[in-house]
Design a protein that fits this description.
By secondary structure, the protein is of the alpha+beta class. The chain has helices spanning 10-26, 32-43, 51-58, 63-76, 81-97, 161-164, 167-172, 184-197, 209-212, 217-223, 273-278, 350-357, 361-372, 384-406; strands at 4-5, 104-113, 123-127, 132-145, 150-157, 204-207, 228-232, 237-239, 271-272, 286-293, 296-309, 323-328, 338-342, 419-420.
Length: 440
């Protein structure tokens, strides 16, 4: 249509083959060209990746027609996001695994600041991009990662309770009737179960303390047979090395069923992970380098001990199994700053524990690029379908970037894979952009 690859050749053929697979996942043949155009528009240079400026870049002589085509694909066409993401995964994961095996499944969420109250799921809530609570949308993702690359394979809007309680508001935003309120950890567990059903190559589950502080997330991962390294808060309680709750009391003579639950007493209580960390001898802390950063190897002090989680174990009949408590205490800090619980094997070396815990950084890189380069947060529609379709196509475009990088160097930050477009008409101004002085 107006867009083209800068020079025909192997990359153009790979892009065409990739889009062909995605077009099949989108169903109707009439979605093939709009899909190719939308993904191309996301990969083109340009600050804004909402429909109108993409349409102008793709076909400056027929902006209105291109706009209608792209808008229909993302806002109205009833193709399946999960099937599309599965097609992206089938193409991209093999290219990632050429450089090493899958090592982790990374759970995370990200926010999109929004004005107004009509965009689906918008509410006052914590927004990581702003570092505070504000009006925003939030979405939960599951990514598959090797040591050098990662790819989101599931994406779902978090719908706050205030939305779920307003049927009319949900109807106007096109929220499917079957969607009920779920916490972010519940959404993540659903994504994980689906990935297991789809037989995605399994990795260690990584998540921050927003997920690790929940009482159900970590035990559910264990029930699913998955290992994890998950952040926890400093007030989480554990039984220190060699400690565990008291057994149920012996049965007294007389009637009544024997007591089965574990117990504590005044002299036998669990402690917070912060208390445990502060009580460790100085020799327990080791300086570990885990990754090469822009200024050299990233280093900090860490300690790890075997503990048993203690959360409400007085309601259990068996103690929680032992797992690793990993703690970080940077040299210049007055106290430890981060804590993780991990079910990696007992013989795992401290450096390996640290490397896995710190591997969550890679998803931050993904989100940065998805937002800054591919316009993940630029969709201006208000509907459930549009929000998810736009994000799916952003991930699809990112998937092609990842596949191309893994053909050469997965650590490279390639630009826009050779895509170019015609010049914009000089009088084109997308909605909301500033106009030159003197223009009406």
């Amino acid at each position: 249509m107006g867009s083209r690859l800068s020079s025909p050749g192997p990359q153009q053929r790979r892009f065409a083959a990739y889009i062909e697979g995605l077009a099949n996942a989108a169903g109707h043949a009439d979605r093939h060209t709009p899909l190719k155009n939308y993904c191309t528009g996301l990969l083109l240079p340009g600050e804004r990746k909402s429909v109108e400026p993409m349409a102008a870049r793709l076909d400056p002589d027929n902006v209105r027609r291109m706009h209608q085509s792209l808008h229909h694909l993302v806002a109205d066409a009833p193709w399946n996001d999960e099937e599309m993401l599965a097609e992206v995964r089938r193409y991209v994961l093999p290219t990632m695994q050429k450089h090493g095996p899958v090592v982790a499944w990374i759970v995370d969420d990200t926010g999109f600041p929004k004005q107004g109250k009509h965009s689906v799921g918008v509410a006052r809530q914590y927004c990581g991009e702003l570092g505070k609570s504000d009006n925003c949308q939030a979405a939960v993702s599951l990514s598959v990662s090797t040591w050098s690359s990662s790819l989101p394979i599931a994406w779902r809007l978090y719908l706050p309770e205030v939305w779920c309680q307003d049927a009319e508001r949900c109807r106007k935003a096109g929220v499917p009737e079957e969607v009920q309120f779920q916490t972010k950890p519940e959404i993540a567990l659903e994504q994980i179960r689906q990935a297991m059903e789809q037989q995605v190559r399994v990795g260690v589950v990584l998540a921050d303390a927003g997920y690790g502080k929940g009482t159900q997330f970590r035990p559910h991962l264990t029930q699913l047979g998955l290992q994890y390294t998950v952040g926890i808060e400093s007030n989480a309680t554990v039984w220190g090395p060699g400690q565990q709750p008291l057994p149920a009391p012996a049965r007294k003579s007389g009637r009544g069923a024997p007591a089965k639950r574990l117990r504590r007493d005044a002299d036998h209580q669990p402690i917070s992970v912060k208390q445990l960390a502060l009580g460790l001898p100085s020799w327990a802390w080791k300086e570990i380098g885990w990754r090469l950063g822009t200024g050299g190897t990233l280093r900090s002090r860490f300690a790890a001990v075997r503990v048993r989680p203690a959360h409400r174990d007085y309601k259990r009949t068996e103690p929680y199994p032992e797992e690793w408590l990993l703690m970080e205490w940077p040299n210049k800090e007055a106290e430890p700053t981060k804590y993780w619980l991990s079910t990696l094997p007992e013989k795992t070396a401290l450096k390996s524990l640290v490397k896995m815990a710190k591997h969550r950084w890679i998803i931050e890189r993904d989100y940065e690029e998805l937002k800054q380069e591919l316009g993940l947060g630029h969709y201006e529609g208000r509907s459930w379908r549009g929000f998810h379709h736009h994000a799916t196509l952003c991930i699809a475009a990112y998937g092609f970037l990842m596949a191309e990088r893994n053909r050469f160097s997965p650590s490279a930050r390639a630009g826009h894979v050779g895509l170019s477009a015609p010049e914009l008409p000089p009088d084109f101004h997308p909605r909301g952009s500033p106009r030159s002085p003197g223009e009406a």
